[in-house]
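notes to self, project folder thing:

trying the whole complex as one job this time. last attempt i did each chain seperately and stitching them together was a nightmare. two parts in total, labels are on each line so i dont mix them up again. if this works i'll redo the older ones the same way
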Amino acid sequence: MFRRSTSGLTVLAHSFGILSLILLLFWLLHYRGGLNLESDISERIFNVHPFMMFFGLIFLSGEGMMAYKTIAAEKPVQKFIHMLLHLIAICMGIIGIHAVLKFHNKENIEDFYSLHSWVGIATFSIFLLQWLVGFVLFMFPKASPGTRARALPWHICGGRALLYMAISSALTGLMEKATLLGDKYHSNQARTINFLGLSILLFGIFVDFSLVFARYV
Amino acid sequence: MFRRSTSGLTVLAHSFGILSLILLLFWLLHYRGGLNLESDISERIFNVHPFMMFFGLIFLSGEGMMAYKTIAAEKPVQKFIHMLLHLIAICMGIIGIHAVLKFHNKENIEDFYSLHSWVGIATFSIFLLQWLVGFVLFMFPKASPGTRARALPWHICGGRALLYMAISSALTGLMEKATLLGDKYHSNQARTINFLGLSILLFGIFVDFSLVFARYV
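result (full assembly):
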């Protein structure tokens, strides 16, 4: 199903995506007690948040952006997978936001006060809008070829900006958690968080690069 | 000197750049006691850091990226301004990094342990490399037209990735400072930091958009 002739940039993107996933799971399972939305331990409820947000809105979304290049199938199939991966991302995003609000509720922490939450909620709202507009214009009911041609560069550019916004959200979230470690910031856990942040950033950069060089060069 | 026919996206980019600058100065002057590299108060030495990093590596750098579109002059003049603004950015970056190291030294804080510092130092190093390679290829001694044509998309894409990296650095830095406010996170200062972060992000997105739609649409 996957193209054999994937470029080096695409391979690098996949690699940093999978590395990020491994580092994230290692962090959450080894240092933070695991993840469980129905747990009595509120930290475990919280841990669902970073997993869902990264896996949906960064990893699946980035893979969805590359689908036209990496999935060896007809254009309509690629388009369907592109749409579907972003729809799954939205569902995971809703679960992830629910998780952090449930955690806040349990711990009596105020919602939406931090820079992380502001950037995150802006990203998620525009992501939703981008998906809806994309669906209406490119899938159903589908706009005229002229309108689609005019809208496509905005859809592509908006998608890339959203990926970088999602990465900014992730990095501010990791930064917040790491700063709250206090003295423990000089620990292996902190270094895991730092490597995770860098790996997520590199995933985004290589997704960006692999798309640009697929299209314009 | 400036083009009259700047597009709406360029105007939005300039606007969010200037808004960010105003919010940053308001934050540093009103809430953080001002900035002075030679002060006895270490906080004032620190404050030189966010100012230099934002003004150089985000604002001037973003304006430099748009120079081919906004400066009404011959191509070689635009190119010179593009190069010069990024050179000034590097100089300001060096002063900014010096400021935070001086602050750490005075306060006995370890260097380069946080995610912010890792992302920041990676960004600055690649920025320097990008400038050097750009200078050699496009200014002096200048490569052959074929090499330049092959290198240009990498230079453009790398530049955009670096802008988003610089913005990620800024946002993690702001997030770190805001988290260290502790209980004071629910204050006007915190909201100023949040608005500043969003404004910096929007500056980057509109610089990105204005360049893509200048080039490809």
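what i see at first glance: Residues 8-212 of chain A form a domain with the Four Helix Bundle (Hemerythrin (Met), subunit A) fold (CATH 1.20.120.1770).
need to look closer tmrw
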